[in-house]
Design a protein that fits this description.
2 helices, elongated, about 20% helix, alpha+beta, 5 strands, five-stranded antiparallel β-sheet, about 90 residues
């Protein structure tokens, strides 16, 4: 089975987060969207959504134990694009 590897880029800190493994790009976007819109005093993504973007960085194939990485991370979606109006 192949798992998608994504990472959140923090523009203010100018760095990427620890990579996360997920089933598909769609499930990664859904989780990112949920987190951007989850209010909470400790949630930086919710406080500053314009500072965070979700990137695809590669795939992990658990049948052969191999990482297949992109030469450069590929933008999936920006935090500012997923803000839900309440």
């Amino acid at each position: 089975m192949k798992q998608v590897i994504v990472s959140i880029h923090d523009r203010a800190a100018q760095c990427f987060s620890r990579p996360v493994f997920t089933q598909t790009e769609g499930t990664a976007i859904r989780s990112f969207t949920d987190e951007v819109n989850r209010s909470g005093a400790d949630n930086e993504l919710n406080k500053h959504p314009e500072d965070f973007d979700l990137y695809f960085v590669g795939v992990f194939d658990d049948e052969v134990g191999a990482f297949i990485c992109e030469p450069q991370p590929r933008l999936l979606i920006k935090g500012s694009q997923v803000i839900e109006v309440k």
